[in-house]
Amino acid sequence: MSDRGQAPFRSGERSSGPQGTRFFSTEALRQYASDAADGVDGRISVHEPVLEGSSPGIEGRRFTLRPGRQAIGRRADNEIVVDDLSVSGNHAWITNQQGRCVIVNTLSTNGTFVNDRRIHEAVLRHGDHIRLGQAEFVFLTREPGQPGAASRRWVGAILLLAVLGALGVLAWWFLGLP
To answer: Cα 37–40–42 angle (5° rounding)?
Structure first.
């Protein structure tokens, strides 16, 4: 019998039933989820933005903001768990609807801040700094160093004008216009 494709059996876990059904502790499931998340390529897009940790303990850790509402807090039943005593059990919600992300403070003890301003609700933009208690994050919709949509539009417009200008010169030359 092969264990290929199954999660490894760890001490403290138990197996039950002739089919090999296994019961896992909450901590074991959290570890499996973390291991699986580490295997994801972590690409950032407008439709799948991330919160990237920037404070000690979570620095560099990325939390993908999937469509819908995700709870952030210290409790294990949150979609984004932040193990920091300054973060409330259920600190905030982030709603991602078609790439538009809104963060809402849920009556946390130490507050929710966006760009050093205490908020109840705020629309997030690329590069915003978010602080939940003492835990700090950066909201990213593209990889650092990647040009934004506005700069890509400017480059496209300049190229279009250059092509149109070249076509105008060619038309003038072929038609022999004075």
So the answer is: 100
